[in-house]
Write a structure and sequence with these properties.
Length: 142
């Protein structure tokens, strides 16, 4: 049976969203959702629409670890977001190490000639693509 996987790059102001193809081989960018975690605005209304439309079997959330592999405040915030998402939508959530994905995303956009002001619009969803693609690649049997 084929199904999709949703990938999220969770920040305090935005959540980058990516989706896998039905075979679980590749990740594609979807959009960036504006959030305000301090006010409890988690973007779940828009996520509800995306989940209803795409019907993912699970969600992969980027886990921002320190370079020494420790987890800090942002990692806990990502775990809290994942718990709230599971509670709201009943989907299983898994975490993928996201160290350096934002820097990777920025490099891809710079190398692609994207102007600085335009990079801000794309960086979070591209980071979500990298998080999800790293997860998909880690699941492949060789």
């Amino acid at each position: 049976m084929y199904s999709r996987i949703l990938g999220l790059d969770v920040g305090t102001k935005t959540v980058g969203v990516a989706i896998s193809d039905l075979l679980g081989m590749t990740a594609q960018p979807v959009e960036t959702i504006k959030v305000n975690t301090e006010k409890g605005e988690l973007g779940f209304e828009r996520l509800a629409e995306l989940i209803a439309d795409q019907k993912p079997e699970k969600v992969i959330i980027g886990l921002p670890k320190h370079m020494n592999n420790d987890e800090g405040i942002r990692a806990q915030a990502s775990r809290d977001y994942g718990e709230a998402l599971t509670e709201r939508f009943g989907l299983p959530v898994f975490y993928q190490d996201e160290r350096l994905t934002t820097m990777q995303a920025e490099k891809v956009l710079i190398d692609g000639g994207v102007r600085r002001k335009d990079r801000k619009k794309s960086i979070d969803k591209l980071a979500a693509v990298l998080i999800l693609q790293n997860y998909l690649d880690s699941q492949k049997l060789f």
